[in-house]
Design brief:
- A 7-stranded mixed sheet has the order 1-12-11-5-10-9-8, sandwiched between helices. Strands 2, 3, 4, 6 and 7 form a 5-stranded mixed sheet that branches.
- Strand 6 and strand 7 form a beta hairpin.
- The two termini are 30 Å apart.
- By secondary structure, the protein is of the alpha/beta class.
- It has a domain of 204 residues: MetI-like fold (Orthogonal Bundle), CATH 1.10.3720.10.
- Helix 1 packs across helix 10, helix 8 packs parallel to helix 9 and helix 8 runs antiparallel to helix 10.
- Bound molecules: adenosine-5'-triphosphate.
- Adenosine-5'-triphosphate binds next to helix 13.
- It is a peripheral membrane protein; Multi-pass membrane protein.
């Protein structure tokens, strides 16, 4: 008899508030501080002609080297009696103008070069990129000096020099991405539709590359302002009497001991500008790249972060089971707060039993499976409640090393796409042997021999020879068998198989299911089988639990649930299994699913 666990009425899903890039940027306190500082500096620089300032170039020998807070010269005067505040504001205006113009020029030409090289590929790419390599082979400041030496000193020439030496950064970044994109299916589709190369680059490639250009620009513009100041400091940029921050620093250097404020003031301004632009640039990069926000590039913790509010004590049944999951809750930290993905899931699995976890895409099956051994990446994953009991012990109370020894030992996983889990540079035999050696103190040769045995067990033909094949040399079904061999390497008690047959065609799927069935019966394995296919459940599972939006809505013996489903969602899922001669009913069931989803909100 199947047990409907939840009421049929769908609970409305909490609204996932997608934050705008601007809000995300302002939530980052350092980036917001950078933004306010640079906005203030830019505003003052823009308003320079309107501000009641002295003429920055008018000298007044009678008022030489006045200290700060002198009457009518708040920041004092320089060695020629010029007002330091006026020179600072006008100098900042020029430095910003030159730095930002150089960044725009470098971004434009560098991106153009990168786009052409990446899209064209082949000889054009080779030729362009070798030229770029030659530019990069020189220390950039020497190159800038050489360019200004050839063109002659002056602000405009300094701008050209800075732009030229920065072109390679943009070209390299953009070329790498454009090269990858130019082989993607949507670009092929655009080519087949008859679009011209220019149109493809402009409408298919460029929009995908734009965030990278913006990110590269935001992180290099501060650097370019600094380089401009460097050239002016050396007397190759702004020429007297014109002031920019670099030339002010250069002039102040001679008076560093007698009148330090003359160099300290432009120095502090350069520091403020570069720091604020860099902080803002980092913030822009984080806000534009959702993977960074989710913490994808930070090193994941060895075990999912555990922050449990409720810790249920294992009951008698949990202790007697091979695996028991009790009120498991797993969430993801997002910019908008914690999003629950698994909401109080409970099930148990006896030795030799197969439990099917069924549900549509995004219902939380994989997150449940990964949570069992704390394999959900943290950040962003957090286990917020519940317990997982294996051999009577609460997994989440174990030490990291103990959980580590369970993984691939007592509990093994089989994933959907073995091509992504197998290492492309090692033979499958080496990889199975490595799985053995990770848990057993055996020598290399012994592990290799056992690996061949395991490949034979999972019915890979000619296992001695196939053991020295690389993953790409095997078929999808054979790779999945290798995945199963690795899972069996340490004689596990529990196997968690996450859609192991979804990527395979029906005949290979049937063979793999048969193999799992035989292994289960021969070895008494407890099998948690994740799928969205009731047909597969009917074939292999003793019991089934139906998941929807992070909750189990119905659970029971497979025959009972299939024969007499109680929950409307289960009924619809079962109706989705195509049967010969029932085409129309099948299509109607499929058509109804999204409609009801729209009414209730989607779980994914
Ligand atoms: N890294 C992540 N960050 C935020 N949310 C995530 C992350 N990984 C998964 N989720 C969310 O968790 C929920 C459950 O995902 P899960 O992968 O468990 O679904 P599933 O039922 O296994 O689907 P499928 O059959 O497509 O694999 C989804 O709503 C998904 O958006």
């Amino acid at each position: 008899m199947s047990v409907p666990i939840l009421e049929a009425t769908p609970t409305p899903e909490p609204m996932i508030t997608r934050q705008t890039t601007w809000r995300l940027l302002m939530n980052n306190r350092l980036a917001a501080a950078g933004f306010y500082v640079i906005a203030l500096v830019v505003l003052i620089a823009l308003l320079a002609p309107l501000l009641p300032l002295h003429d920055p170039d008018v000298t007044d020998p009678a008022d030489r080297l006045l200290p700060v807070f002198s009457e009518s010269h708040i920041l004092g005067t320089d060695h020629l009696g010029r007002d330091v505040l006026a020179r600072l504001v006008w100098g900042t205006r020029i430095s910003l103008l030159v730095g930002i113009s150089a960044a725009l020029m470098a971004a434009f030409f560098g991106s153009l070069i990168g786009l052409v090289a990446g899209y064209a590929g082949g000889r054009t790419d080779n030729l362009i990129m070798r030229g770029i390599d030659m530019l990069m082979a020189f220390p950039y400041i020497l190159l800038a000096l050489a360019i200004v030496a050839v063109l002659g000193p002056g602000l405009l020439n300094a701008l050209y020099a800075i732009a030229v030496v920065n072109i390679p950064f943009f070209a390299r970044n953009v070329r790498g991405i454009a090269l990858g994109l130019s082989h993607r299916e949507f670009v092929d589709a655009a080519r087949l539709s008859g679009k011209s190369h220019t149109a493809i680059v402009a409408t298919e490639i460029l929009p995908n590359v734009l965030p990278v250009i913006v990110i590269t620009m935001s992180t290099t513009v501060g650097w370019m302002i600094l380089e401009t100041a460097g050239l002016s400091f050396l007397g190759l940029g702004a020429q007297p009497p014109q002031a920019d921050l670099g030339s002010m620093l250069g002039q102040g250097r001679a008076l560093l001991f007698t009148a330090p404020m003359i160099s300290v003031v432009p120095g502090v301004m350069v520091f403020l500008i570069v720091m604020s632009i860099n902080l803002l640039g980092d913030g822009v990069r984080d806000a534009l790249d959702p993977r960074l926000r989710a913490g994808a590039l930070t090193r994941p913790m060895p075990v999912t972060r555990i922050d449990r509010e409720n810790v249920p004590a294992p009951d008698e049944m949990a202790r007697a089971s091979a695996l028991a999951v009790t009120e498991l809750e797993t969430s993801f930290e997002t910019a908008g707060g914690r999003e629950p993905a698994v909401k109080g899931v409970s099930f148990s699995l006896r030795k030799g039993e197969c439990l099917g976890l069924v549900g549509e895409s995004g219902s939380g099956k994989s997150v449940t499976a990964l949570s069992v051994l704390g394999l959900v990446a943290s950040p962003p994953g957090v286990i917020t409640g519940g317990a997982v009991t294996i051999e009577g012990r609460d997994v989440f109370s174990l030490r990291e090393t103990e959980i580590g020894s369970l993984r691939g030992g007592k509990v093994a996983y089989i994933f959907q796409d073995p091509l992504t889990t197998l290492h492309p540079l090692f033979t499958v035999g080496e990889q199975v042997a490595e799985a053995i050696r990770a848990h057993q103190p055996v020598g290399r040769a012994q592990a290799q021999a056992k690996a061949v045995d395991l490949l034979r067990t999972v019915r890979i033909p000619d296992p001695e020879q196939r053991a020295s094949a690389y993953p790409h040399e095997l078929s999808g079904g054979q790779r999945q068998r290798v995945g199963i061999a690795m899972a069996l390497a340490n004689e596990p008690d529990i196997i968690i198989a996450d859609e192991p047959t979804t990527a395979l065609d029906v005949t290979v799927q049937a063979e793999i299911l048969r193999l799992l069935q035989v292994l289960r019966q021969e070895r008494g394995l407890a099998l948690l089988f994740i799928t969205h296919d009731f047909g597969v459940v009917a074939e292999i599972c003793d019991r089934v639990a139906v998941m929807r939006r992070g909750e189990i809505v119905e659970a029971g013996d497979t025959a009972a649930v299939l024969g007499n489903p109680q929950h409307p969602y289960t009924k619809r899922l079962i109706a989705c299994v195509p049967k010969p001669g029932q085409g129309r009913r099948f299509l109607e069931a499929i058509r109804r699913l999204p409609a009801e989803e729209a009414a209730g909100g989607s779980g994914s």
